[in-house]
Amino acid sequence: MKKTTLSQKQKETRKKGIGGTDAKLIMEGNWTDLWAEKIGKKEPDDLSKNFKVHLGINTEEFNLDWLAATTNWNVIKPKPNQTFFHKTHKHMLCHPDAWATIDGIETTIDAKHLSPHAPWNNSEIVMKRYYWQAQHNMTVMGTKQFVLSCIWGNEWQEPLFIKANQNDIDVLTERETEFWWHVQNKKEPYAIEQAQAPDIPIDDMKIIDMKGNNEWSTHAASFLENIDSSKKFDQSKKELKTKIETNVKHAFGYGVEGVRAKNGNITIRKIKE
Hints:
With 273 residues, the chain is of the alpha+beta class. The protein has 2 domains: 8-204, Lambda Exonuclease, Chain A, CATH 3.90.320.10; 227-270, no CATH class. Helix content is 41%, strand content 17%.
């Protein structure tokens, strides 16, 4: 089992600068504990036995491979120990999961494994949750968009896009630079106001032409071939339900049965042989 996606060298480097996950804490005003970690007064949380963390780590490579196969993007993964630094603000760094050029736009990619039962388990909330990490990684790498490739439980979702926002990047850079001054001077930070990540409507997400994707082509053909029979199937179920009177809990015949649940809902199904 992998202990972390970061090597020991990368973890040591992370102590000497601000990474993408740090950016979210800084923008949310959670400076004190992070500052204590950076100056060595507090050890980071031990995640070596955190199942959810390991699940994300051990599905990351598969996630990225699936993304590449599904979209036909040339997804490039980093070399071992590869760390990116901001060209001007050297305290800003990141360890991206991957990157690609999508429709001519340089893009940073992050792979996530998410619980379908989490209270923030919809696309808009997820993009808001990782917004500041996205802006941080984009400004460090000089890219213009950020893609979240998410596995929800055991389902892979279409990639989510976050665009670079220069105004927010300017605020982020200013806050991270201020935070780093406190680290370098070992001055405990004061309370700071939280910077809210904006809502990102799904309507603003990217539209992708899936021509050339073989798997999409296969499933699309199957969908079109069966769409009429699917409509007839749904209509037949509706008609069968209307034939079951309200005082009947179980009707059957000709290989099909209808069963009424205690709440009144009727299930139409094939009789098992």
